[in-house]
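Continuing from the previous page of notes. For each protein in this section, the sequence appears first, followed by its structure tokens. Read the first protein now.
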Amino acid sequence: MNTKTLFRSAVALALLGAATAQAQQSTACPQLPADSGLSWVDQPTGDIQLCRALRPDGSEAFGLVISSKPTFEPQRGDRAERGQIDGHDVFWYRAELAQKPGTQARETLLQLADGRSVHVWLQAPSSQALDAGFALVSGMHFDNGERVAGQ
């Protein structure tokens, strides 16, 4: 490898690192666990903020929508597990994905102190992967207002 190629590679890695850091530090999305290796891709649309937590390979670990009105209505009969997000208790609800049979999908709804709703979802191919997803989501922190209620 010549010096020019090494320099280009170093610049590309620096830019990739800066983009990852910028995604992680997004003010609209909650703070991810520091050691998770995840980064945010956030897409604001009007008063809705879509946040997708991506693994280094580009696959989605979980996602969430922050909005003024809930984008998910929990059904008590779909309650599956109890969990925690940012130190607060939540219920996770089963979801079915017609396009992905066998995929374990869960979602929950939170309310921030400022009145906004947070709809969180995750999908996993197995129970073990689902548990790993719960662990990642539980480590998020909402800096822009303390979460006040889980459904």
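Done with the first. The second protein uses the same format. Note its length before scrolling.
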Amino acid sequence: MTEIAGYHAHVYFDANTVDQARAICVKAAELFGVEMGRVHERAVGPHPMWSCQLAASNAQFSDLLPWLVLNRGDLIVFSHPETGDALIDHRDHGIWLGTGLDLNLSIFDS
């Protein structure tokens, strides 16, 4: 692995924090031009909580991550690179802001 094509940041929330998460994601998209995915009010993919994905280029991520550190409040954020190996990206290269959670990595089994 030698190249990172971009990053995903997954903002986790629940029924009590959905509005806070939506506001954070909308603001991040406005400030940094990152692509905001759907606000999933259910667990999706490997993610153990409701989440919204922010897709960032390498340049965008260098500004996005420090902003998320300072502005996420009590929300948990999971970030990972996009190298082409989803299992390794999620399992070995993840960055947690807040409490780390167990991901459902079985979805990456062949």
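What the second structure shows: The longest helix spans residues 18-32. DSSP finds three helices and five strands in the chain. We return to this in next week's lecture.
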